[in-house]
Amino acid sequence: MKKVKAIIFDLFDTLLHDIKFDFDSGLSYLHENILSEGTDKAEFIEYAATYWKDLYDKRNEDNSEIAFEDEVLDFKNKYGFKVNYPLEEVLFNCALEMNATELFNDTVSTLEQLKLLDIPVYLLSNSIFKKNVMKKFINQFDLEKYFVNIYFSADYNIRKPHKDFFKIVFDDIKMYDASIEMEEVYFIGDNFEADVLGAYNFGFMPVFINRKKDTVINNKNFIVIKALEELLEVIQGDGVNVPSI
């Protein structure tokens, strides 16, 4: 196992506890606050659940991504807006309505120690919201400062485990340091198929953060941690001296 030279994190249920995701709450926010007066809620929900649901379901077949921004613009064309809010503000409010999240208690301390180690850290996450919105979302927790760069699937129309999505961040890592090899990049995520197998199939070293303590799915004996702080023990085992903070 090669010494770690770069680290990529997944976001939801890796750095942020995704307490609840409720897509319909975002639609309700749009109907109540944004769409033109007189928009029939039942008809609006039905339209979203038919036309757009088929597109979202397709993601599971080909690992494509749909940006929620496209959906909102479609709603604007179809129903009109009663307010003149900037689109980014509307999308950010939708993201807040849909996602109930909180920091895991070891997220910041782990990121702080990685910063002291001077290991470049990146974020690569599946999300229906683009980077401009997700920057605001993660900065509720003051997280962006820890990353060299952040990537979200909505910006690229592909999602993990698509190899091209991993390649985007690896190309960036190579610009940071051309000597870094794939197997020297550790990818930390909670989703076994998208994060662990996706990273492994691309050529990264996957680290499975298994907070649910599932003993069945890790049949390839990948590195497993049960909490984020255990990543520092893995790095130390690779010969990296982890400082105290």
UniProtKB/TrEMBL annotation:
Pfam families linked: Hydrolase
Record lineage: Bacteria, Bacillati, Bacillota, Clostridia, Eubacteriales
Keywords associated with the record: Hydrolase, Magnesium, Metal-binding
InterPro entries assigned to the protein according to its UniProt record, in alphabetical order: HAD-like_hydrolase, HAD-like_sf, HAD-SF_hydro_IA, HAD_sf
GO process annotations (BP): small molecule metabolic process
MF terms (GO), sorted A to Z: metal ion binding; phosphatase activity
Cofactor field: Mg(2+)
Protein name, per record: HAD family hydrolase
